[in-house]
């Protein structure tokens, strides 16, 4: 069996891309388009911070009610760059095996079919190494379709480039 290389990873689109899509002003649909997060493979070179653990579940003890949650986060930026999205992935740790094993869907590892989830921010924030973003992420099953997820992200940032305090709603279908 031969090994086939993975295709090149796409670059994340900046929110301003809606202003000119192949010569068309698509900004009127920007808000609707950004409501749904993008599930895709993210180029690790585009990550401007380290990973931050959001929540941890013990698969032997987790209940359905636990899956609707609100969790605080803090992101410390590693370099001077722009932040225009938050990227989520999950890790599954098989700790009860004779040799513990971790399955990660991080952009920093070999791509998996689960990919990553990209939540585009309304703001494109200029960040500098050492600055921090804090916030909360709430996730719950959608009341009309429990297979969909309603995600609310409240992020706060105060740095050299300005101050941001925004709440955004997303729907994962």
Description:
This protein has 173 residues and is mainly beta. It has a single domain (15-172), classed as Hnrnp arginine n-methyltransferase1. The protein is 3% helix and 41% strand. It is built from one helix and nine strands, in the order H-E-E-E-E-E-E-E-E-E. A four-stranded antiparallel beta sheet has the order 2-7-8-9, with no helix packed on it. Strand 8 (149-159) and strand 9 (162-172) form a beta hairpin. The model is unreliable at 1-7 (pLDDT under 50).
Explain briefly what this protein structure is:
The chain is mainly beta and 173 residues long. It is 3% helix and 41% strand. The chain has a four-stranded antiparallel β-sheet with strand order 2-7-8-9, with no helix packed on it.
- The secondary-structure class comes to mainly beta
Shape: globular
Give the CATH H-level superfamily: Hnrnp arginine n-methyltransferase1
Low-confidence sequence ranges: 1-7
N-to-C order of helices and strands: HEEEEEEEEE
Distance between the termini: 36 Å
The chain-level mean pLDDT equals 89
Order of strands, widest sheet: 2-7-8-9
